[in-house]
Amino acid sequence: MSNTYTQFCKLEDVPVGGKKAAKINDTWILVCNIKDRLFAVSNFCSHQRKPLLSGRVRNCAITCPVHGAKFNLETGEALNLPATKPIPTYEVRVVDGWIEVKV
């Protein structure tokens, strides 16, 4: 894992309640804004590598739109079957209006 942050997008591109996926190097990252708190996780479900971008976010968790697996956005922990493995999480910060992620 790198010790440097990479610009992801402008903060205004991920308003409260919003989410955005983008590729940093070779890694697809999903950033979610929940009540002005940003979370960065892998954009792929650990069950069958389906994209999480269109999944529903509730109670600091995202649900895979394909099979219904839920993941804690803070820890990446799989919260229910069919997923049994966590998804990667990443450090995120805001600098000069830009969301930056450490991948």
From TrEMBL:
InterPro entries membership: Rieske_2Fe-2S (IPR017941)
CDD domains: Rieske_RO_ferredoxin (cd03528)
Pfam families reported in the protein's UniProt record: Rieske (PF00355)
Positions of the Rieske domain: 6-101
Record's protein name: Non-heme iron oxygenase ferredoxin subunit
